[in-house]
Design a protein that fits this description.
Length: about 220
């Protein structure tokens, strides 16, 4: 069993299996590079962000427990309690950075995994954009293994402008080779240390592509 920072692993597995069934049943849901994901130890899934689907699509296909993010306004009633139980990190409008960062580092210190988005927000057009320094800072300070992750097809299925998802189509999640702190961190003397670290991560995300399909 891998390390987990999830309060209720059993509930997490129910949600994960439901998400896996949803994507596998309603989409051509495929993955590549799953062998790159460590089974234990602190891990950061650093992904492009193009869709409402991105968080569950990243983790639905494998057993590694991942802490995701959600607006703090969603943490109400039974649904809010469920979010807490499956390890969701609330993002508050006030002091969002401080509260979220503390939760991220707690998870990684406990040997858990978190999914972060170097670009900071969902892409309006599905294309990769310039990253922000936050992801680089987290990677440098935590010294966790970073798994570059790229989502294909989630924008077309449920993009930022869509009010409801489009069913059908191909969704592919590509997991890249692990990146170590030595590969990511340009050093304390670099004038844009954390931004450069984020750029290095984004460069690896940009290199990821789905496997070539042979048409007969």
């Amino acid at each position: 069993m891998s390390e987990s920072s999830i309060p209720n692993p059993q509930l997490y597995e129910i949600v994960r299996n439901t998400a896996n069934w949803y994507f596998s049943s309603l989409y051509d849901y495929t993955q590549s590079g799953k062998q790159h994901v460590p089974k234990s130890g602190p891990v950061i899934f650093a992904a492009n962000h193009v869709s409402f689907y991105d968080p569950p699509a990243i983790g639905a296909c494998h057993n590694r427990h991942i802490n995701y993010f959600a607006r703090d306004t969603l943490f109400k009633g039974l649904f809010g309690k469920c979010l807490v139980e499956i390890g969701t990190i609330p993002v508050a409008r006030e002091n969002a950075e401080i509260k979220s960062l503390k939760a991220i580092f707690r998870s990684l210190k406990a040997g858990g995994a978190v999914a972060i988005y170097p670009e900071g927000t969902r892409s309006p057009d599905g294309q990769l954009s310039e990253p922000k320094p936050g992801a680089g800072m987290i990677a440098c300070k935590s010294k966790a293994i970073v798994i570059p992750t790229r989502l294909f097809g989630t924008y077309e299925a449920y993009g930022r402008q869509d009010k409801t998802p489009k069913l059908g189509g191909h969704i592919h999640i590509a997991y890249g080779a692990p990146m170590t702190t030595a590969e990511i961190d340009p050093g304390k003397s670099h004038p844009e240390r954390y931004l450069e670290a984020s750029r290095r991560i984004m460069a690896r995300i940009a290199q990821l592509q789905p496997p070539q399909m042979t048409v007969v």
